[in-house]
Amino acid sequence: MIRRLIVIVSVVLALSHAVKDCCGDSTIAWDGFESGTIGGGGWNGDWVLSGSADTINNGNAHSGTYALRLRDSNGVVARTVNMTGVVALHQLSFWWKAFDFETGETAVVEVYDGSWHTVLTVIDGQDDNIYRFAEVNLSDYNKVGNFQVRAASHMSGPNDFFYVDDINIVGTLLQYTISGKITTGGSGLGDVNLIGLSVATDANGFYTASVDYGFSGVVTPAKAGYTFDPNSRSYTNVTADIADQNYSAFPSDNFNDNRRGAMWRHVVK
Length: 269
Fold this sequence. Notes:
Elements lengths: L25 E6 L11 E8 L2 E4 L10 E5 L4 E6 L4 E14 L6 E7 L3 E8 L8 E6 L10 E7 L6 E13 L1 E10 L2 E2 L4 E3 L3 E2 L5 E7 L2 E8 L3 E4 L3 E6 L8 E5 L5 H12 L1
Parallel strand pairs: 12-20
Antiparallel strand pairs: 1-11, 2-5, 3-4, 4-11, 5-10, 6-9, 6-11, 7-8, 7-10, 12-13, 12-16, 14-15, 14-17, 17-19, 18-20
């Protein structure tokens, strides 16, 4: 029977803290469990499982094919967040569902910021086997180097289930700048798009872009009628400002293939 959902939380699960409203925020850590205990990103180490806890492909994932599953009275799973470069934490979100709880049985999700705090408690009456979305405001928790997320089962048997999937932690990262100049014939070239940085050069050919701590990507200059040297630059794990990322621009050869072909036909004759 579909039962009424009652969520008991020890922190405010406020829609005002949804990811879409966190202007300028970045994903600090995430996992959809598609690679078992070692996937996702932004973590220090793998998920640590004990008791009746596993990642499983049995048709009960919220998305993809795998989810975290806790059973019985002793399932525990925890993982430490990589806090390097993190200025502030804002939100933990995840999907969860429960099945076949009896009176007094619970499952919990907790965070560690120097001490453990329960942020979600699931009880009998919520075990309708339907995924629910949880959003937890993390702004009042301490930004410690070994910040952890943990889930635990306190049920009575192997057929009592608690699933968690699609975990996401949002916060603010340190930012750095990548800057340089694009010139053609010794003069600055304006309105060149730096694809990968989402900026363009000013009228004098200068550009400056802000990137998050740990930024990795490829930057490619682009403007109609020009080619560039180098044609792109690659960045891996940016942890400081990077200046003098300059490019030289050259007018493209407008001598098109049709004219070139006509010229060669004339020469052959």
